[in-house]
Amino acid sequence: MNSDINSPLVSILIPTYNQTIFLKKTLISALEQDYPNFEIVICDDSTTTDVRLLVEQYQTKYKNIKYYHNGGPLGGRGVINFQKCFEVCSGDYISYLCHDDIYMPNKVSVMINYLLNDDNIKLVTSYRKIIDLVDRVRPDLPITQPFYNETKRVSGKEIGKYILKNLANVIGEPTTTLFRKVDIEGKIIDYMGYEMGCLIDVGVWLKLLASGDLIYIREPLSCFRIHPGQNSWNRDLAVRGMIDWYKLITLSYNEQLFISDEDYKAAICSWVGSIRLSFPQAVIAFLENKDLYTELMGYYNEAIESINKG
């Protein structure tokens, strides 16, 4: 990377935790960006020294790598570490990179041009490929299939409504996007005062889309790795995710943001249907945090009451 002071600084943020199997490839994909001015910020929740030792091998050569060890997990299953990355970075533009994912070399350079040329564009994302633990490209999942067949600009309000009505993160994981730091008000992990427990990315996307438009790029600019050890396979985390969806829907509706009365009812009905489908007794029995399930059922009863009121 050759620093270019005429190009705005982009912060590539990598939250890490006790994992170096994929981190080397992740870090290399960040270092190989063809954009001329970026820093890599690694905030490490690890309880071991493995991540630090790996990063130090690269810091001797690449002075744009900043490493912060948190002394162990900061809390919230990585949520607080996500916030720390945002707080300690210096860039005007933010691009998260999950510690097992991969960037294409032109990811940042392609995306930033849209933000530089139009202040009303608040978020840029792209199609992403699915890879497995040995880097083989896998078939798309329903949620990762190309949302559009071409690169296009989309109304933030319209895509926000779609996300809430369908409980679908069609924008992508944190790795897929680029946005301006200044466009995030308050804590990045909060949505209207509510601290996200799982769907941090969706909360961020909605905050940005509330005030501007989305650019969707059809070209794949990142790879999302799926493997058995990742957080998304955790049952308790799935419950937290459903609680987050309920809060995103109700908070948005209360502020008359994205969804109308009719949209709200459709979104709540979708949410109730997902609860019934996703949490049968067989799944509940394996939950570690029964209090979390009790909280979910409280919101479920609220939702049923809201539907019955018409």
UniProtKB/TrEMBL annotation:
SUPFAM superfamilies in UniProt: Nucleotide-diphospho-sugar transferases
GO molecular function terms attached to this record: hexosyltransferase activity
Record Gene3D superfamilies: Spore Coat Polysaccharide Biosynthesis Protein SpsA, Chain A
Segments forming domain Glycosyltransferase 2-like: 11-150
A Pfam match: Glycos_transf_2
InterPro entries with a match to the protein in the record: Glyco_trans_2-like, Nucleotide-diphossugar_trans
Keywords annotated in UniProt: Transferase
Protein name per its UniProtKB record: Glycosyl transferase family 2
Organism phylogeny: Bacteria, Bacillati, Bacillota, Negativicutes, Selenomonadales
